[in-house]
User: Fold these one by one.
Assistant:
Number 1:
Amino acid sequence: MIFLKNDFENDVFVKNSFIHGTGIFSSIAIPEGAPIMIIKGEVIDGNECERREDEEDNVYIFWNGVDCYIDAVKTDKIKFINHDCDCNCEVLDGDEESLILSAYRNIEPGEELTIDYGYDEIYESCKCKACA
Ligand SMILES: [Zn+2]
């Protein structure tokens, strides 16, 4: 299990987003490259990931880059992160049961945190600021 000595999880809050539904925001400035929070959840395999996406409309699953998936549906913050092609956060490798959300560039207080979801379907109908 990964443990970050300093992170910004307590500075991240959930509120309505202009991008889509609900989003997560930082209440303070976060410097480029800083770890923001650990992405944790239930570890599942590729088949179970597909089943949950298809049968349960679960869109809160992160791929850990190897062969397992992290279902963040029960988390209170990270599951609300929205997609932006011009994102300010990135997802870094953690271990088999976690990933790290990190600042891709300097983030201002009050800014919404976004990542590039990185799958083809999102780009076809993307309504983010970079695409609009
Ligand atoms: Zn876009």
Note: The chain has a mean pLDDT of 92.
Number 2:
Amino acid sequence: MANDMNNSDEERYSYPFEMPSEEAVAFSDGAIDGRPAGVPSSYDKGGSLRWTPDAISEVHALAQLGRYQVRGYNCFNQRLPTFDDLTFVPATMTRLPLEGYREKCDTTTILGNSGNVENPLELKIPIYIASMSFGALSASAKAALGYGASKVGTMTCTGEGGMLEEERAASERLVYQMSPARYGLDLDHLRRADGLELVVGQGAKPGTGGLLLGMKVSERVSKMRTLPPGVDQRSTIRHPDFLGADDLAVKIEELRIATNYKVPISIKMGATRPRYDVAIAAKAGADIIVVDGAEGGTGASPEMLLNHTGIPNISAIRAAREALDECGMSGKVSLVAAGGIRSGVDAAKCLALGADAVMIGNASMIAMGCNSPRYEEDYAKLGTSPGACHHCHTGLCPVGIATQDPDLEARMDVAVGAERVARYLTAMTMEITALAKACGKSSVHNLEPEDLRALSFEASAFTGVKMAGIDRAFGW
Ligand SMILES: Cc1cc2nc3c(=O)[nH]c(=O)nc-3n(C[C@H](O)[C@H](O)[C@H](O)COP(=O)(O)O)c2cc1C
Ligand code: SF4
């Protein structure tokens, strides 16, 4: 046998038929341009799993720029699970559904009802508009969000960089964000707010601060932030006033005194180690904790942070809820989930996983007209098209939402934007109540993990939700 292996190829094996011609072996009857049929001319669909066309163009871009890329919108990492990995299991025999058209399902949502402040935030629906800065968004977009949210009884947040008068006027309830960089921090604004939000991180870029490229730093933005116009603004991420939980407790007490114990104080964090981070924030005295998953939107962020930092929203919510349960803070400290929420269905899944409310950023911009098929020539100038735009960082938003250019901003009609936001929030709420009633709940806050099943082992392991059919949770 060993000798046979050493024989030449011709001797190794003899077909019981004549050797076919080279032409026949190469299927040359189907050849194109002399290339044998079946041999690709190029690997334009990605021949290598490692060096995909995207990976190659990333190297080309880095080699040209000599720095990382910055862009807006959200995470493009396709390995993150989505809310579609979970499904609802409505009432059938073991539970009774509510009568869809006749029985009511309560959507009232109270945030910050910790007993520490006089005016917790009472919302008519469990959804509100995320903190998005004036600077990242135009003044018209900010005002439209405020009016739209107010029309349906919910609230919006300033984001970094100060309180815009148009937004204050438009918003029945407005939360004032205090970033570590203290851009736009003003004691008068602090007292005119209905809630405060201390941001220690965002899902789109945990561990780093805000970023606003020079093109969007207009005269007005720069005045509000007391920084030079036209220059990139990078915020610090570490609050100068606190280095740990003990200082944070002192800071929260200071803010309570400044606001006369009237309004709730939130801590907003990117989802990284929610089990521990949430426990620390709760112990330090936060009334509300916002956990922003890796899918979270942004006006501008280094691309590698968008795609490769943080953990997905669905895995953060259960861990955060368990942290609050373990330190006896559920019911006292409210939990808000954010990041990648597209619809009432996604929001209902967040509530079922343990959130008290959800906050939306990108979805509210899309409701106002982001990525809508108008001004197509301007999308083309950015090298993109409606439905694929993620160019908020450029300040050249074709629909006037993420810009400070007065001509572009004029395309953003405040009344139309507000009405679209209000209708979108209404539709989302209808989706949530329809699902909750089907699951037999008279309040959206009664949704629970048992109302869900996971469609993949990963989703089950990420959330502790039982696997469909098997009715057992994996690895929780
Ligand atoms: C245009 C834009 C601007 C933002 N500005 C801020 C900001 O100033 N401060 C902050 O904490 N988060 C900011 N965020 C993040 C949002 O508050 C929120 O965490 C995120 O958008 C939630 O994810 P979603 O967009 O998938 O709903 C911004 C997001 C967007 C899309
Ligand atoms: S349309 Fe405007 S808001 Fe939407 S992604 Fe593009 S630049 Fe951003």
Note: The longest helix spans residues 414-438.
